[in-house]
Amino acid sequence: MEVSTPLIKNILLLDGEGKRVAVKYFSDDWPTLNAKLAFEKSVFTKTQKTSARTEAEIGMFDGYIVVYKFVSDLHFYVSGGEDENELILATVLQGFFDAVALLLRNNVEKKTVLENLDLILLCLDELVDGGIILESDANVIASRVAMRGADADVPLSEQTISQALATAKEHLARSLLK
């Protein structure tokens, strides 16, 4: 009996028209941009008429298990192989959604997500790396993404990129000096 680590194939965040907002692929199953876009369009088209607004839904599309949830004008998707555990995929989806909701103060809509795209991409990085699930607890993910530097009065979402990098450098320097 072969025991393996659960692997995520991709995480997609699409808008209400099926266009990319934030996507991350962890598999070479889609080698080209056109293949990725075709998969996204296929999944979006097959799921847009469902009612996945309150609870996550599970479906099998093109040989992949896809767990998805819709909120406002955003569609969240997590995909795994056909033999992957649906509950694990659903946990990853819920962790991603809840972390985004925490970081955006429950204002989960396309405009707010685009304004805070850096935080969303950091969420993806904290959640999964190379297809391997690192963390699924939304509070842990959100706190890692929104780490505050010496100036705790200014949240990360209100800092410029250079301020955020400076804060990260200070934090790293302090941890190395201890």
UniProtKB/TrEMBL annotation:
Pfam families: Clat_adaptor_s
Topology within the bilayer: Peripheral membrane protein
Record's keyword annotation contains Cytoplasm: yes
Keywords (A to Z) from UniProt: Cytoplasm, Cytoplasmic vesicle, ER-Golgi transport, Golgi apparatus, Membrane, Protein transport, Transport
Top-level taxon: Eukaryota
Family assignment from sequence similarity: Belongs to the adaptor complexes small subunit family.
Chain's role: The coatomer is a cytosolic protein complex that binds to dilysine motifs and reversibly associates with Golgi non-clathrin-coated vesicles, which further mediate biosynthetic protein transport from the ER, via the Golgi up to the trans Golgi network. Coatomer complex is required for budding from Golgi membranes, and is essential for the retrograde Golgi-to-ER transport of dilysine-tagged proteins. The zeta subunit may be involved in regulating the coat assembly and, hence, the rate of biosynthetic protein transport due to its association-dissociation properties with the coatomer complex.
Name of this chain's protein: Coatomer subunit zeta
Origin species: Sphagnum jensenii
